[in-house]
Design brief:
This protein is mainly α. The chain has a 3-stranded antiparallel β-sheet, covered by helices on one side. The two termini are about 35 Å apart.
């Protein structure tokens, strides 16, 4: 078993593309690529939490450092979710939409959509804040740490690519603090 896993690892590590994007996840990858490269934290993307290509709207949010932004942004997200929940409820009752916004939403689901499709989607509306500006800031901050982290990992026989993990975890923010208690880079 060990040698089988070792050979599998060697095969994957030697593959020309160690992170292939399979057709079944391509749209999800595209969604997250947009979150991290297209939309800043002042935009919220309303989408289906299972079928990520179903993006209902992009709403404007206040910059997080502004006084009262958190409360106001929650209110904006809640109102936007309520708006699309109502549209989906109406489409679940009658798939033939007459209002332009309802037509647009129905078209997102494609020609095979039925009332059940819309009914299920009512409970899957999510708002994801963009991350473009945070990624950019993290890339800039990483310059202060990356070489030293790689050197430490190398000296301990660890894969140097692990040095990039803080981009995902904390954007190299030494003051990062998660709601679960994780702190730092």
């Amino acid at each position: 078993m060990f040698f089988g896993n070792l050979f599998l690892c060697a095969e994957i590590c030697a593959a020309p593309d160690p992170f292939p994007i399979y057709p079944s996840i391509e749209r999800n990858v595209d969604f997250w690529a947009d979150i991290y490269s297209k939309y800043p934290t002042t935009q919220g993307i309303l989408h289906d939490n299972i079928d990520l290509h179903l993006v209902y709207d992009v709403i404007e949010l206040l910059a997080s450092e502004r006084h009262g932004a958190r409360k106001e942004n929650r209110k904006r997200m809640k109102n936007a979710k309520k708006k699309y929940k109502k549209i989906l409820e109406n489409l679940a009752k009658s798939s033939s939409a007459s209002e332009p916004e309802a037509k647009r939403i129905a078209e997102l689901f494609g020609p095979d959509a039925n009332p059940a499709s819309f009914r299920k989607a009512i409970y899957r509306i999510r708002c994801q804040m963009g991350q473009k500006d945070r990624v950019r800031e993290g890339l800039i901050r990483s310059g202060a740490y990356l070489d030293e982290i790689k050197e430490i990992f190398h000296s301990h026989g660890l894969p140097e690519d692990l040095a990039f993990l803080p981009h995902v975890e904390s954007s190299f923010n030494p003051r990062a603090y998660s709601k679960f208690g994780a702190a730092g880079i």
